[in-house]
Design a protein that fits this description.
With 243 residues, this protein is of the alpha/beta class. The chain is built from nine helices and nine strands. A seven-stranded mixed beta sheet has the order 3-2-1-4-5-9-8, with helices on both faces. Strands 6-7 form a two-stranded antiparallel ribbon. The longest helix is centred in the first third of the chain and has 17 residues. It is globular. The model has no long low-confidence stretch (mean pLDDT 89). This is SCO2525 family SAM-dependent methyltransferase.
């Protein structure tokens, strides 16, 4: 379960250096899909405020960047106090290496036409909250769009807890809300700094079965690593659709 590891010991700086200092091909592919998915869902922003949530944001800012044109408010939720400190530092003016992720998003006009500096927009929209994914059960239908990248399978070795994490994420979204979620395939666990963290071994069938309990309007993409990009992990499964 989510208490299997000492999340306060999670090292977001080591995690970012290993995974996001430079943009990898698969992350660029995921960004391309999610930017177009959100862009098609919101062809015109209109006057209705949109609220977004990135569940288990950790050291990864690109899911929040993908929601930036559409949201007046974006909640970055994470259980780790170390991750929360990192996110709060980044919220004021995020590091320059995130610009390469923003450039991929800007291939869609909705992002390139943003009428303010993305750092200023990020600072105004983002709210960082320390909290557990399972606590989202108290906030059913609260958010208008959402992302969850490498979370439900990366906090536990339990399949039941994985399914419950997916459920809590989807139930937190309003009916019809667009979402994007990514999962490490067949992970045996991972390190962030000096500490090892648990993982649940899931593949595309398990991901689809977990999502299908709450929506039929989704697609999955199985993305295989061309090299041992992330040790102990077989690839990524990306899912996107509407609640």
């Amino acid at each position: 379960m989510n208490s299997e590891a000492s999340w306060a010991a999670f090292d977001p700086h080591a995690y970012v250096d290993h995974n996001y200092r430079y943009i990898h091909t698969l992350d660029a592919e995921i960004l391309s899909i999610v930017r177009d998915h959100f862009g098609e869902h919101f062809p015109r922003r209109g006057d209705r405020p949109v609220t977004g949530i990135d569940v288990g944001a950790g050291g990864n800012l690109y899911p929040a960047l993908a929601m930036l044109p559409w949201c007046d408010e974006i909640t970055l939720l994470d259980r780790s106090s170390a991750n929360v400190r990192y996110l709060r530092d980044q919220a004021d003016s995020y590091d320059g290496h995130w610009d390469q992720f923003w450039h991929v998003l800007c291939k869609n006009e909705a992002y390139s036409a943003l009428d303010v500096d993305p750092r200023a927009r990020f600072r105004d929209a983002v709210s960082v909250q320390e909290g557990d994914i399972f606590d989202l059960a108290r906030h059913e239908g609260r958010w208008s769009m959402g992302t969850m990248f490498f979370v439900a399978e990366s906090i536990t070795s339990s399949r039941a807890d994985f399914d419950r994490g997916v459920e809590c994420f989807l139930r937190a979204l309003a009916p019809g809300a667009p979402f994007a979620a990514a999962f490490m395939a067949h992970s045996v666990g991972y390190c962030a700094g000096e500490y090892f963290f648990p993982a649940c071994n899931v593949g595309e069938p398990e991901v689809r079965a977990s999502l299908k309990r709450f929506t039929d309007a989704f697609r999955t993409v199985d993305l295989q690593f061309s090299s041992n990009l992330r040790e102990g992990q077989g690839g990524m499964i990306f899912a996107y659709g509407t609640r």
